[in-house]
Amino acid sequence: MFDDPLAKMWVSFIGMGLMFFSVILTIITKEKLTGILRYILLTISFIFIIISGLIIFLVVFSGPVME
């Protein structure tokens, strides 16, 4: 799937960034917000963590990149 090592690196950075934003969004939402906006942002955070998990799964199990 990933033929270029540099592309694999950037895709993994995107996955880690989504994890980071998910954690920050969850912390801010739990601390500061109430009502329907809280549940909308928590849903977005959950979607981010699912997408990042899938990205990291693909990167890890795609194996080493042949040069």
Jot down its keywords.
single chain, 2 helices, elongated, transmembrane helix, membrane, DUF2768 domain-containing protein
Describe this structure in a few short sentences:
The protein is mostly helical and 67 residues long.
Note down, in words, how this protein is organized.
The protein has one domain. It has 67 residues and is mostly helical. The two termini are 14 Å apart. The model has no long low-confidence stretch (mean pLDDT 90). The chain contains 2 helices and no strands. Helix content is 81%, strand content 0%. The chain is elongated and about 50 Å long.
Fold blueprint:
Layout: H1 5-32, H2 36-61
The tally of beta strands, per DSSP, is 0
Main sheet: strands, sense, barrel:
none
Protein structure class:
mainly alpha
Helix content: over 70%
Instruction: Classify the beta-strand content into a percent band.
Output: under 5%
Radius of gyration: 15 Å
